[in-house]
Amino acid sequence: MNIFRLAGDMTHLLSIIVLLLKIQATKSCAGVSLKTQELYAVVFVTRYLDLFYSFISLYNTVMKIIFLLTAFTIIWYMRKHKVVCQTYDKEQDTFRVLFLIVPCFVLALLVNHEMSVTEVLWTFSIYLEAVAILPQLVLLQRTKNVDNLTGNYIFMLGSYRALYLVNWVYRYFTELGYRQWIVWVSGTVQTCVYLDFFYYYVQAWRNNERMKLPG
Amino acid sequence: AQDDAPKDEL
């Protein structure tokens, strides 16, 4: 494992910790999209089915389990916690997730490495992760004002994807015959989804003011 | 091109 990949994973983990801390400390999930969090749970469940039949490393297994547990913990807070669930912007978080799930599934059936249940589900998870942040970005656009922690959460998620891109470039030049087109193309799309957000995040940071999205 | 990279990423 190279330094870019490790930095990417740690940024991903940190983004989840930031979100969980925000929810626990402020007892509020205002500005957080439950739809996006549920899509991430679907992504992790369909991708990490290999926990049952393949072992890569202890690091790999532990991280997968952490991502699964934290995803369901966040969903639990937003749906079931008696204080937190009342702060959820249900009326604003109206993205139709089937418009993401169905096309990703069809694409996974059409473009994959092998027509098996686990391989199609794994491919589906790759496609779905690329667009899973969209309900969150739409919610942000609607509520306009972005609180610091939610902003940092999304910024870290975007950074994690950017670090994965660098990791793939590094692996391409250091590992003979290494290529994974499905992952590369989806990952590039996924990183591009964040570009607009990055622009406003960096602008707010440079002007030392609270982040605001244009109408 | 055939991808045969191991699924070792998260």
From TrEMBL, chain A:
Organism per entry: Pycnococcus provasolii
InterPro entries listed in its UniProt record: ER_ret_rcpt
UniProt superkingdom: Eukaryota
Designated name of the protein: ER lumen protein-retaining receptor
Membrane topology per record: Multi-pass membrane protein
Any single biological process term in GO: protein transport
GO CC annotation: endoplasmic reticulum membrane
Transmembrane regions: 51-77, 97-115, 121-140, 152-170, 182-202
Signal sequence interval, chain numbering: 1-25
PROSITE patterns, sorted: ER_LUMEN_RECEPTOR_1, ER_LUMEN_RECEPTOR_2
Keywords, comma-separated and alphabetical: Endoplasmic reticulum, ER-Golgi transport, Membrane, Protein transport, Receptor, Signal, Transmembrane, Transmembrane helix, Transport
Keyword flag Transport: yes
Family (UniProt): Belongs to the ERD2 family.
Compartments where located: Endoplasmic reticulum membrane
